[in-house]
Amino acid sequence: MLGSKGLTVVDVYQGWCGPCKPVVSLFQKMRIEVGLDFLHFALAEADCLDVLEKYRGRCEPTFLFYAGGELVAVVRGANAPLLQKTILDQLEAEKKIKDKALSDEDECFPHIKDDGEDENMVSSEKTCTLAIIKPDAVAHGKTDEIIMKIQEAGFDILTNEERTMTEAEMRLFYQHKAGEEAFEKLVHYMCSGPSHLLILTSTEGTEDAVTAWQTLMGPCDPNVARMEQPER
């Protein structure tokens, strides 16, 4: 977990008093504000891990901040304003490091553009589309099977990621269904657990990725799909 991208905050607590509940609520609120991918929170009982021996026997919690697997800050005590400031400061510091790395990369590998032709070459040849393997399929271990079928259907997977979608992301993604009766239920379902996201492009010599993906998916209505394309 310490190797996760973004910032990880570990609440080191004593077994006799348990985690600090107000701070847990603070972190949950901040995760929503800054993004679930950028801030992670973990609990660790000092008596259960040898590496935390020096934090045992304290009457106040200790919060350890990790970025890139390295300890970057320590806050002692349930000081909510200080914890919030430390989180924001560390996230900003990490962002500056990433921005500098991208800037250095651009300097080492400058892009040569000639009247914009090279820049548009890839986009004119291939289109991409987003595919989402929904929470129930992920929970039932169907991800690998579905990915195999996608590849067999002639798609290249440019990138993929598994994570729980936010409500804001799902409302934007399904905004074309906003007026439908089941919209709220759909948004809640899509945020109920991890989904698997894939960026797809169709292989050379086939139709554009969006059309090809719609054809593979078949009818949007499950009842119609079961009748017309039961094999899918």
UniProtKB/TrEMBL annotation:
Q: Which domain of life is it from?
A: Eukaryota
* Any one Pfam family match given in the protein's UniProt record, by short name: NDK
Q: Which residues form the Nucleoside diphosphate kinase-like domain?
A: 126-231
The entry sums up its family as follows:
Belongs to the NDK family.
Task: Quote the protein name from its UniProt record.
Answer: Thioredoxin domain-containing protein 6 isoform X2
Q: Which organism is it from?
A: Galeopterus variegatus
Please name the taxonomic classification of the source. Answer: Eukaryota, Metazoa, Chordata, Craniata, Vertebrata
The gene is LOC103583048
